[in-house]
Backbone:
């Protein structure tokens, strides 16, 4: 379980696909691997991955290794990672963690494409196009996790929805590097997902 509050960005050291499995290695500052055990969960661009190896590369940096299976590559943007790509990094929740975002599972539902970016001095917003079957779970002023970052949904339209990003979010996450056509990992709010599906199932049974 995660909070959707990105702790830092990590850099991709290697991303090699062999027999449908990506062997992903990232470099991150050592402070973000303290007491990190094999088998621990880390959200990389919002996707919950299992640590398979950790190595200290020097006094400041460490490398963390993951195996990313084909199903994950199909549903997320991790398959498009390249050497040098920056990814959002969040360790899993521990007892006493401040919950500043919303509960995030790390299970990606779909990807959304960036179709418009508006940069102004006091306003940075972008429009995302989401697959139609997921549109009903994204509500104005509701929660959504974008590449693992807990954000509030702006206006919703027939294509998808808008995000309004503050400087702090842009500084800590990789959303600032987005270009038109890029895809973000999307995890809809689990509470919204559950309520809508429960109501739809009930109405279907009644009919």
Residues:
């Amino acid at each position: 379980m995660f909070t959707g509050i990105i702790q830092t960005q990590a850099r991709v050291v290697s991303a090699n696909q062999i027999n449908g499995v990506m062997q992903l290695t990232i470099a991150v500052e050592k402070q973000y691997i303290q007491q990190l055990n094999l088998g621990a969960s880390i959200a990389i661009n919002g996707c919950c991955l299992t640590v398979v190896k950790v190595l200290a590369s020097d006094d400041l940096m460490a490398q963390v290794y993951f195996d990313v299976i084909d199903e994950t590559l199909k549903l997320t943007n991790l398959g498009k990672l390249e050497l040098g790509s920056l990814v959002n990094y969040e360790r899993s929740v521990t007892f006493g963690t401040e919950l500043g975002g919303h509960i995030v599972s790390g299970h990606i539902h779909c990807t959304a494409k960036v179709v418009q970016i508006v940069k102004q001095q006091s306003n940075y917003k972008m429009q995302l196009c989401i697959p139609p079957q997921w549109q009903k779970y994204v509500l104005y002023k509701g929660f959504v996790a974008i590449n693992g970052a807990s954000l509030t949904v702006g206006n919703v339209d027939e294509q998808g929805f808008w995000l309004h990003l503050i400087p702090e979010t842009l500084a800590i996450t990789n959303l600032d590097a987005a270009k038109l056509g890029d895809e973000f990992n999307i995890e809809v709010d689990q509470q919204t997902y559950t309520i809508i599906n429960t109501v739809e199932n009930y109405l279907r049974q009644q009919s």
Observations:
- The chain has three helices and twelve strands.
- The helical segments are 70-75, 167-172, 190-206.
- The CA atoms of residues 39 and 51 lie 5 Å apart.
